[in-house]
Every structure is written in structure tokens, then in C-alpha cells.
Amino acid sequence: MSVVHLVLFSGLLSLVIAVSSSPGSRSILRDIGGGNADQKDKAVELNTTNFDSVLRDTPAKYAVVEFFAHWCPACRNYKPHYEKVARLFNGPDAIHPGMVLMTRVDCAMKTNTKLCDKFSISHYPMLFWGPPSKFVSGSWEPKKEKSEILVIDDGRTADRLLDWINKQIGSSYRLDDKKFENEHVLSNITNYEQISQAVYDIEEATAEAFDIILSHKAIKSSETSASFVRFIQLLAAHHLSRRCRKGAAEILVNYDDICPSGKCSYEESGGKDTLGNFPICGKDVPRGYYMFCRGSKNDTRGFSCGLWVLFHSLSVKIEDGESHFAFTTICDFVNNFFMCDECRLHFNDMCLSVKTPFKKARDFVLWVWSTHNKVNERLMKDEASLSTGDPKFPKIIWPPKELCPSCYLSSDQKKIEWDHDHVYKFLKNYYGPKLVSVYKEKSVIGSKEETNIATEDLTVATNALVVPIGAALAIAIASCAFGALACYWRTQQKNRKPRRSWN
Ligand SMILES: Cc1cc2nc3c(=O)[nH]c(=O)nc-3n(C[C@H](O)[C@H](O)[C@H](O)COP(=O)(O)OP(=O)(O)OC[C@H]3O[C@@H](n4cnc5c(N)ncnc54)[C@H](O)[C@@H]3O)c2cc1C
């Protein structure tokens, strides 16, 4: 066994995964508009049980909560108006995702009585507006001054409701807006605030990558199986989202049952151990919410951008001893599972050009960065000649000077001379603390409970339990073809399975 493997294994042995005490509630967000998109309501139905968790978990900046009663004829007549606006903001087909979460609470349901009382509901429908976090454990009273929760006093038709929202956020949304024709795409002169919006994109890209593997039944051989397992190991140890780390660890623990001898069963099915039953970041990651990676056109950016950001965010967490493992794992992952032939082949060439194993994490971070820049450089030319790029996000050599002046030794645009020490420092900060900064800030202004959940979600938790990481170890060994030993470790791991205490 090589030194690298030894270090990796010892790193994995010390891997800790936190035990969640929060039920979470992203499935509701994810489910918006699912099924028959034409028939399903877009507004999210909330009740006493899920009200706080949905509003805490939404990536949207604002929320509208409609309190209504299902027996109220005016509410029934109002519903199509409300739904017209919700169509713009909610669900995978949202025209302006990530801005406003549109919800409703049925006060005629006995179980919701206390919730409706907290908001002093005096008539139906009654609509409120505010940052989602302000609704969590929140209340509203008519005479309370300076509340961040506002009553929407002019939302009687879809047009008027949208006008009211436009005035609040300075937007110019229209009911007939089409997907991606909006003014809320970011500029590609990325700044620190923008990267913090990538937190959700990384989760979404991870979930999308996993879905692609499922839908293509892409684990086809012992080689692809080992490649998949190594990537999952990397995520279990270093993904910035705790729920993705947890989901990855779950897959590792159950891998023998899901993929006996590397032959996986994929379908989502009740009770059976299949890969589809182990969503990598849990069931609740909202989809269609790319924000940092959102293109100005329907067919640009999104997943591939999210994948790059995932790779960079992983790279800055790697320790020296894992750097070559991380390198080969990402190379193999792209080669086996990134279903874009051109991308795969070019990337593989760049992987093959590395002749000496990485020993330092710094070298690996800089390799991912410079490889990405090589792709940018090539695409700059292609996109200019074919007009296939996103007009609002032309490819650039990155980071631009505006973002990191000290990364540049010379100002000659034709041949940039980099100060690699500064580039490394910049990348560590940008894809590390800066990436999670707003998430944490959001939690700081929220409730204490919210603070705990949010910060734990993105950092190694303090009340962590040692995960039965023998599974990771066993599969790592298996993937190194240590047959009998792997078998032993797997057996050990199976025996330890009941100790898992998340769920
Ligand atoms: C492994 C891989 C290989 C690919 N190969 C190809 C290919 O051969 N042909 C093709 O057409 N498309 C390829 N793509 C897709 C392409 O690179 C872009 O992802 C896609 O065009 C979307 O571009 P974007 O504007 O969202 O920015 P992306 O290039 O996706 O970058 C996402 C974000 O990362 C940041 N960033 C940019 N450059 C760097 C850097 N050097 N270091 C750190 N951060 C950076 C920026 O903030 C940028 O907005 C590949 C994608 C991946 C993940």
C-alpha cells in the first residue's frame, strides 16, 4: 500500500459526520410543480408542521404567505391570480427562481389555528411579505411597528400583486415573462457576494451528477464502480454541504447491498436497497434553482458551471496527503461520468499530461484552477466564432484583475504572469470561507436554532459522531483490489451498521 493510500485511509478513519437533529423540509420545495406541471399548484401549501422548516430552508430571498380558508369563495376566486404569480417564482420551471417563495396556509384546517392566530389573521385571503427567515417562529400584530413582515395591501389581482412585489424589490417582472428572460443574472466579473450564492448550486450540481449516473445506469464495470466509490468517498469527506456528506456516507455504508460485485440496481423502490433510494444530498435539494451558475439563456451554464464550482470547493479542502487521490478521483469521475464527450476527452488529455503524482494540496488546487483556465481559453475562441456562449457570461481568464489584483505579476493581457502564491491564497479563501459566508450571515441574523443548523450544515459539526467509516475504508480497499481484506472489512462494517444514528 502506498504512502498516499495510508495517509488517505488514516484521513478517512478520522472522518466525522454530524448527526442531524433537524428534520429539514426541502422535499416540499423540491416537489413544487412536480408531476403534471400544468395541473399542480405552484404555490407551496404550508401547515403548522412544515411552516418553519420550509421557510428556513428556501434559497429564495423573499416569501409571500397567503393565509386563506378553503371554504372561502373569494379565496377560491383569488387562487388563479395567486397561481399566476407563483408560476413565475416557484418550482423547477420558475421564470425567476430563487427570488420569491410563494406559499399558502389554510386557516380552515384546525391544525393550523395557532399558526394563523400568531399572524392575527382577520380576513381571508390575507397576504404577507418578508424575508423567509422572519417568518420562522415569527408572528405579526396589526399595531406592531417596524416589523419586517409586511401586509400586502394591494394584491387583489395577479397584476396588482406582481406590481406590489416589483415595487418592493425594484424589479420589472411581468406575468408573461418567459423562462430565463430576466434581469437577475449576475455579471461574470464575479465578486465575493456572488460566490456565496453558489452554495445551493453545488448541492444541485452534485444531485444532478448523481441523477445522470442513475438515468444512464453508468456504473457498468468494476472500473466505473471503483471510480464512483472513490468520488463518493471524496464527497463524504469534503463536500461543503453536510447533507451531501451524509448522503455520500450512506451510499458507502450500503454499497455492498446496492451494488453487489459492482452491479448496481438503480430504480427508486420502496424498501429495496437500490442506488435510487440513496439520493446523494438527500431527497430535499431544490432543483432548478441555479443562481450563481444561472445563464441568461435557457441552454447555457447551470450544471457544468456547478460541477466546476464543486471541484474547486473540494480542491481547497484537500490535505497534502490526499492530493493525488483527489486528482485521480476527479479525473476518473469526469472520464467515466461526465456525459459530454468533448469535455471528457479534453479533460482526460489534461489529466494524462500530469506525470508526477501530486504531493501538495497547493499544487492540486492550482492544477484545477489552471486546467479550468485552459478550458476557458479554448472556449473563448470557440464561443466567439460559433456564438454558442452566454452573451452575459463570456469566458475569461480567471480570476480577473478586479477580483484579485495581487494575483497578477504583470499587467500584460496577452501573456499573463501569475503570482501563484497569491492565486492559491485567493482560491483558498474564495472557494472556502467566502463561499459559505452569506449562508452563515443569513443564519446569524436568523434565529438561534437557524444559526446552529446553517453553520453546522456547511462546516464540520462540533457535536459530531465518528461515522462507521470502515465502510469507506473497506470500499477503498476493495477498489484497490485487496480482495480478501476488503471482504473482511466489509463484514466488519456490516456488523457495525446499526450504530448509525442519523435518520
Ligand atoms: C471538467 C469539465 C470540462 C469541460 N470541458 C468542456 C469542453 O471541452 N468544451 C465545452 O464546450 N465545455 C466544456 N465544459 C463546460 C464549460 O467549461 C463551462 O462549464 C460552461 O461553458 C459554462 O460556463 P460558465 O460561464 O458557467 O463558466 P464555467 O467555466 O463553468 O465556470 C464557472 C465559474 O467558475 C469560476 N471560474 C472560471 N474560471 C475559473 C478558474 N480557472 N478557476 C476557478 N474558478 C473559475 C467563475 O466564477 C465562473 O463563473 C467543461 C466543464 C467541466 C466541468
UniProtKB/TrEMBL annotation:
Top EC class, one word: oxidoreductase
Top-level taxon in the UniProt lineage: Eukaryota
Coiled-coil segments on the chain, per record: none
CC per GO annotation: extracellular space; Golgi membrane
GO biological process terms, semicolon-separated: protein folding
Pfam families: Evr1_Alr, Thioredoxin
Thioredoxin domain sequence ranges: 35-170
Keyword RNA-binding annotated: no
Cell location: Secreted
Matching InterPro entries: ERV/ALR_sulphydryl_oxid_sf, ERV/ALR_sulphydryl_oxidase, Sulfhydryl_oxidase, Thioredoxin-like_sf, Thioredoxin_CS, Thioredoxin_domain
Protein name: Sulfhydryl oxidase
Taxon lineage: Eukaryota, Viridiplantae, Streptophyta, Embryophyta, Tracheophyta
